[in-house]
Amino acid sequence: MSPNRRANPEQRMALLDHVGELRRRLVLAVAGIAAGTVVGWFCFDPVMGFLQRPLRDFAGADTQLNFQTIGAAFDPRVTVAVWIGVLVSSPWWILQMALFVGPGLRRTERIHVAAFGGAGILLILLGAFSGVLVVPKAVEVLLTFVPDGAATLLRADAFVSFSMRVVLAFGLSFLVPEVLVGLGFTGVLRARDMMAAWRWVVVVCFTFAAVVNPLPSPVPMIIQALALVALYLGGVGICSWHERRVNRARTGAATPSGTSADGT
Questions:
Q1: What are the phi and psi torsion angles at 150 (to 5°)?
Q2: What distance in Å separates the CA atoms of residue 215 and residue 66, rounded to the nearest whole number?
Q3: pLDDT per residue over 17-46, tens digit each?
Q4: Burial degree of 196 (CB within 10 A; 0-12, 13-18, 19+)
Q5: Tell me: the pLDDT tens digits for 198-257?
């Protein structure tokens, strides 16, 4: 009984240490997002200028943002600031996640976590950037459906939410290969099974692009769907390479040096 009694306080201390470390990392992550939000607050004017440019260039005075209440101008500023803060600080809060799980991993696992984190940051930023490029085009195309002689009064909060949802959807869609590679590296899915479901993947990619892409023209939807399919195939290729590498390592470990695979 005495060994168990001595172990229990040690286990409780270890658990408290983990909880304390998790709390510290969460505080640092939130602090980074808060700092990024401050940056986003001061970047509100150029960002809104970029988003409003199609309204001014295409429709002129006939299309304006409408602030329906006294405090309505404050809400879009906070929304844009928070979105910018999350995107700008993404390397920092992803780093905090990696630093929390890193001490309990082996060296190769740490390398994998670092690679996944870096790839995730790059992919989500590329996706968000593509969404930023699509938003003005989407606004310009959608305004062509307004009848001649009519004025368009857009709710400012709805306009900002629409823009941010498009950016978020594009950013998350670019994480598809990262999710697949993670499932493949952990053994949840095999590359052969992923490739066997390619027909369903094509259907899902085109459906997702049709729902998310705000442009009514089929060409942008097809381009986005093909990009998602290409990302999917890239993730499957990485998983296939990893499986072959693991199989070769297992074969080499199972076959003693100087002995053939058949035991002769």
A1: -95, 150
A2: 23
A3: 667 777 888 898 899 999 999 998 998 888
A4: exposed
A5: 888 888 888 877 777 766 667 777 877 888 888 888 888 888 887 788 777 777 766 655
131 is written with which tokens?
A: 């969404």
Neighbours of 167 (CB within 10 A): 21
Q: How far apart are CA 137 and CA 160, in angstroms?
A: 15
Q: What is the pTM of this model?
A: 0.65
Phi, psi of 152 (to 5 degrees): -110, 115
The per-residue pLDDT for 38 is 92
